[in-house]
Amino acid sequence: MTETKDLAQAVAMLQARLPEIKKTQTADVKTDKARYSYTYADLAQITRELMPILGELGLSFLAKPTMIEGRFVLAYKLLHVSGESEDGEYPLPTSGSPQTVGSAITYARRYCLCAVTGVAPEDDDDAAQAEAERNSQRSAWRAPAANQAPEATSDREATKPQLQKLHALFSQAEWTDKADRLRAASVIVGRDLTSATEMTRKEASTVIDTLQQITADPDPAIRLSELVSNGGQP
Fold first, then answer.
1. Domain ranges for the chain
2. Which end of the chain is more exposed for a tag (fewer CB within 10 A), N or C?
């Protein structure tokens, strides 16, 4: 093991010798309007290439799902043999099947490990394609401005078919908890809701459009969780 006196020195040495991590996994996404794919490096690959270097420099990475102040999060920590550490939290979904929650935890572990160490898997053409896809969908993802007045024809309450559609889309995204659904809808429309029936027809339509895009993703529960965590931004 290479002797390092503290966390800062160990991280500096780590970042001077970060491995080149190839994106070897491919995900295909199909929507009503388009079909695209993107590549990524999975957790097993990143761990296999990075962990030996961490250990050699007296570093270790820990992550565990836990409840903190009523929030379900992945608590992670980068530790040094000196006792110093850098830690943080990543939000996790509170509903969904065990497989969906497990996928969210795996994604969070990969994301946090890369973020806290400075690892950046190689870039490639799919990054531009993904950015183009996000830009084309930005209007549906962005929450309305707080001072934006609803159109006169949209002041009426959401219709029963709209509410049924919302229920079906949330179920498809494996978000079954009522409070979580209201929180997601509130973020998307840009105001606090205590009931789905408070939405106008225009607001309900906005939430439906957003959920339809989310449910086209391979991991809709994760994508919806990220949208809520980011305050409505993609």
1. 7-117, 148-229
2. N
Tell me what the pLDDT averaged over the chain comes to: 79
Taking alpha carbons only, the member of 134, 140, 129 closest to residue 36 is: 129
For 113-166, what is each residue's pLDDT tens digit?
A: 998 998 887 544 434 444 444 444 443 344 444 444 444 445 688 998 999 899
Q: Please report the DSSP string for the chain in residue order.
A: ----SSHHHHHHHHHTS-------EEEEEE-SS-EEEEEE--HHHHHHHHHHHHHHTTEEEEEEEEEETTEEEEEEEEEETTS-EEEEEEE--SSS-HHHHHHHHHHHHHHHHHHHHT--PPP-HHHHHHHHHHHHHHHHHSPPPTTPPPPGGG-SBPPHHHHHHHHHHHHHTT---HHHHHHHHHHHHTS--SSGGGSBHHHHHHHHHHHHHHTTSSSHHHHHHHHHHTTT--
Burial of residue 115 (number of CB atoms within 10 Å: 0-12, 13-18, 19+): middle
Angle between helices 220-229 and 178-189 (to 10 degrees): 60
Distance CA 78, CA 112 (A): 10
pTM exceeds cut of 0.85: no
